[in-house]
Write a structure and sequence with these properties.
16% strand; single chain; three-stranded mixed sheet; binds the ligand N#[N+]C[C@@H]1[C@@H](O)[C@H](O)[C@@H](O)[C@@H]2O[C@H]12; 449 residues; eight-stranded parallel beta barrel; 16 helices; alpha/beta
Amino acid sequence: MTRPRFRFPDGFHWGAATSAYQIEGSPLADGAGPSIWQRFAHTPGMMANGDTGDIACDHYHRYKADVQLMRALGLQGYRFSINWARVLPEGTGRVNPKGLDFYSRLVDELLENGIAPNATLFHWDLPAALDDRGGWLNRDVAHWFAEYAEVMFKALDDRVPRWATLNEPWVVTDGGYLHGALAPGHRSKYEAPIAAHNLMRASGAGIQAYRAHGKHEIGVVFNIEPKYPHSDSAEDLAATRRAHAYMNQQFADPALLGSYPPELKEIFGDAWPEFPADDLKLTHQKVDFVGINYYTRAVVKHDPNAYPLKAVPVPQPNKTYTETGWEVFEQGLTDTLTWFKERYGNIPLYITENGSAFYDPPVVENGELDDPLRTNYLRKHLKALHDAIEAGVNLKGYYAWSLMDNLEWSLGFSKRFGLYHVDFATQQRTPKASAKLYAQVIESNGSVL
Ligand SMILES: N#[N+]C[C@@H]1[C@@H](O)[C@H](O)[C@@H](O)[C@@H]2O[C@H]12
């Protein structure tokens, strides 16, 4: 019998992902300290519709039922993040036992249901107390992060097989320090490179701490958005190179090569610091895997007025765009993975996030909600994933973003990425047709595609 065209390798890992501030709610419960997202969301004008993570998906209370949603899909893994300030209310020093206990109970619930926990230490919600001490702009943050990481490793590494230090450091610096659209809401081209550098120093220090205490795997998660030139003019090619270095190499290069791409000094000019040489020895630690979050691509052209890249994305005609304004371009996923292998070697890779926000008409029929555009996105991207494996990429697994509709950061609850629909007034979860497809993909290891 011939092997089905899109059957994935035996042992391929199928999961779904979320993050703490986007789903948990109860951000200050049981002794938790505030994070910068708790403050940002309660700052007037920062969040669409004034939405906050005060309740979100109420996962802090509903986690057992949510694990059953994961089980219903047949998930083999669940990628979640830990709210640093729930465990260390001041960011360092005193541990909050009730905060630690929540994550211990979540991990046990996952294991009891045959789902492997995949824990991310930092998914943007820095403790506010550390932001008050300079946050990612203070070089001491590498030590603060390593202290927090050690607390978590000692508490959970006996049960957590896979850890990530950071989620998408690029978004933290571009959104939180350059453009100000995300917490902590700074707007400085002088601060952004410093925060970026300290994020990677902290990731390196966290990996070093894991090597002293851990028994399993640790890696780091980057968002990668492949850049394609609008034309083959020298200006557009140079703009594409800058955009690629700024988003796709600024963090992976110091982590995996121990260097920075030269374009960064060209982009930031006098705002690019001369970092101590030893710093790149700290950022450059052996990782057991890299997580890649892929959503879309960008076609890039030169624009002398664009800050700071002198490059802008070019909308593509006759293409499907998601509610977040992202072109549906599955070939970009294949291209991203082959590029990553060519530049950084045959490191084990996971797609740690991939998904799409489309408007879902809440029409529930036979217990599910139809979402054809999201289902089509999922099908196309899983096929593209299989193409990358056939091209020789060392791809170990895939986590759909997201398990359920949640707080899309400053966009609030308006952008729905979930496989499960959430009625935020009632907290009712309803599987979408995309959830049904995903469950069939998992059960057949891709053969249904
Ligand atoms: N926007 N968007 C969806 C998704 C976001 O919800 C995640 O928290 C991030 O890791 C990453 O940006 C991707």
